[in-house]
Known about the structure:
The chain is an all-alpha fold. The chain has a domain at 52-206. It has helices at residues 14-36, 38-53, 58-69, 73-90, 94-118, 140-155, 160-179, 185-206. The radius of gyration is 19 Å and the shape is globular.
Amino acid sequence: MPPSGIAPERRPPRAAIGLLLAGLAVFGLLAVLVLLAEPALLAIDRPLSEALRADRGDVLAEVMRGISLLGSRAVIGGILLALTLWAIVTRECQRTVGIVLVVFAVAMVLEWTLKAGIGRLRPEEAFALTRVTTAAFPSGHALGSAAVYAILAVALGGGARGHALVWLLIAAIGVSRVVLGVHWPSDVLGGIALGAAIAAGGVLALRGHRLDPKRCPGGHGT
């Protein structure tokens, strides 16, 4: 018998709790460094940025733009809109889809709030291949993709290989923002860390439910 009569699939996953705490810790540390010791942080950020941009040609730039687009609000929002319409039409997995939407909303609100509150400047315009006007920390592309793609990987019931591919995509999106010259590496790392923490919170709320009509609350079978 599981402890306290809790079914195994209802137990809070330890990995999600660990990711939540680790993500918040890493983000908190980076936020403090940005606010209180940015020159020291730039001493690390700048060489890394220059190394990633060293061999940036036209072909690589276009590839990076394409990868970066996968982390944009337009693409992520389009995916979630399609998922929402499916849940409404089929009346399946509505609670699960709702949790994914809340994760996305929390990520967007935190991005806007933190950028406005911290106000970190982006890299010099001379390095940028894409023009942006908002603050730098945390990276919105990294934050949004980590939050949404990570929880979707869990909700879709992906195995270890699927999860690895999702995190590889998230990392590639983050790298693309540095190569394009619109973020420092610490902006990206902060965004991924906070996004991972938000996704972990969403996973705890899912409590074993997946995008499967037979298991999702809110479907025809419930």
